[in-house]
Write a structure and sequence with these properties.
- The protein has eight helices and no strands.
- It is mostly helical and 170 residues long.
- Helix 2 packs antiparallel against helix 3 (68-80), helix 2 (39-59) crosses helix 7 (134-149) and helix 4 packs across helix 5.
- The longest helix has 21 residues, at 39-59.
- It starts with 15 loop residues before the first helix and ends in an 11-residue tail after the last helix.
Length: 170
């Protein structure tokens, strides 16, 4: 009995050759099916995948300095649009501003996130349920994780300005 989840086949095999043969056939069938997907089906799949990635990040936050909001935003825009400038035009912002947010040169303004929320509602309406608070949650979760993961940088200086003049006793 050979069990190997890598091959994506739930079956019992008598030999490695038999398992590899079935795995190859399965992969070929998947590739044929993927080649026959329409552009809209691919976009829907990518949007659903993005939603799941965002939800996973919110459930299991990672305490690092990675910019998840920007990554998710870039995936979102690049999934729907061939050119980012068209997305910028659709939400009435300058393409430079969008580029600066995606490349982490500027924090997104509230107005930007609100427009992104409305745009996402329109896009996801026919794809799957997408909570309008998700973009804000990802943004603020990233800020919390970034702040907590970099305490060794900011804490010593900040602690110099904090004191407790009265303690609370049992």
């Amino acid at each position: 009995m050979i069990e190997d989840s890598e091959y994506g086949v739930d079956s019992r095999y008598k030999s490695v050759k038999e398992r590899e043969s079935d795995a190859t056939a399965l992969m070929e069938a998947r590739l044929i099916r993927m080649k026959n997907l329409s552009k809209d089906q691919i976009i829907r799949s990518k949007l659903l995948q993005l939603k799941l990635k965002m939800e996973e990040y919110l459930k299991n936050p990672v305490y690092d300095n990675r910019n998840y909001f920007s990554e998710f935003l870039a995936l979102y825009v690049d999934t729907i649009y061939a050119k980012r400038s068209v997305f910028a035009k659709d939400i009435d912002i300058a393409p430079v501003s969008l580029s600066q947010v995606i490349n982490n040169h500027r924090e997104p303004k509230d107005d930007f996130i609100l427009r992104l929320i409305i745009h996402s509602e329109m896009v996801f309406k026919n794809v799957c349920e997408f909570h309008n608070k998700t973009w804000y949650q990802v943004y603020f979760q990233e800020k919390i994780c970034g702040t907590m993961s970099s305490q060794e940088k900011w804490r010593p200086e900040i602690e110099k300005h904090v004191r407790l003049s009265k303690s609370i006793k049992d």
